[in-house]
Amino acid sequence: MYSVEFFTNLFINQNINEGSSMKIYKKIGKEGFLKGLRTDDKVGLNSADSDDLSRRRKAWGDNKRIEKEEKTFFSFVEESLEDPMLQILIGASIVSTIIGVLQEGFATGWIEGFSIFLAVFVVVSISSFQNYSKDQQFKKLEAENAKKDVKVTRDGDENTMISVDDLLVGDILNLAIGDIVPVDGILVKDSVIMDESAMTGESDKKNKSCHS
């Protein structure tokens, strides 16, 4: 039985680009590949076998999207304060306050410097709040777009619909025109034309054929 590391190495970009992944796959063949993953291209996984599904999640992980660390409001404040012009204005407010206090006394000398600082504070607060709001809206939209069902073969049924988050290693994913493949995988039947521009940057579509 092949190890988790064995199958993981098949999908490392460097191994794919160098052709070593395909050499290994041709050596073990489709049947060896499916047998190693304890699945069947006609039956798929057994949805009633919770122990097997749990074992696959534990060994391989799930297919949930990796969430980026959420940016806080103060991180946007820090980004705003990286603006050289704002930094100059903050410095000017400090210098103006010091000079004003020395020349006019504390009673009125702080007013001009504080006015500059207050203007910077307002600008930073507004821009940070706007950027934070946009980021929150984008995250909600991204999460909503990520919610989708895909068609797999389970229990011998080719039309089983499950959430893309519930896809497991060993699932037989059935593709239709326009589908976005949410996983790394091996084509086990027929052929497809794929747009890999998001991954490779090349606009030419690639023809993929299965290998026995």
Task: Outline the structure in words.
This protein is mainly alpha-helical. The chain has helices at 4-10, 13-18, 20-36, 50-60, 73-80, 84-104, 106-109, 111-146, 197-200, and strands at residues 149-154, 157-163, 172-173, 191-194, 206-209. Strands 2-1-3 form a three-stranded antiparallel beta sheet, with no helix packed on it. It is elongated and about 90 Å long.
Give the termini separation: 19 Å
The gyration radius over C-alpha positions equals 28 Å
Oligomer: single chain
Largest sheet: 3 strands, antiparallel
Strand content: 5-15%
Number of helices in the DSSP assignment: 9
Q: What would the keywords be for this entry?
A:
single chain; 212 residues; mainly alpha; 3-stranded antiparallel beta sheet; two-stranded antiparallel sheet; elongated
SSE arrangement:
Layout: H1 4-10, H2 13-18, H3 20-36, H4 50-60, H5 73-80, H6 84-104, H7 106-109, H8 111-146, E1 149-154, E2 157-163, E3 172-173, E4 191-194, H9 197-200, E5 206-209
Antiparallel strand pairs: 1-2, 1-3, 4-5
Helix pairs in contact: 5-8, 6-8
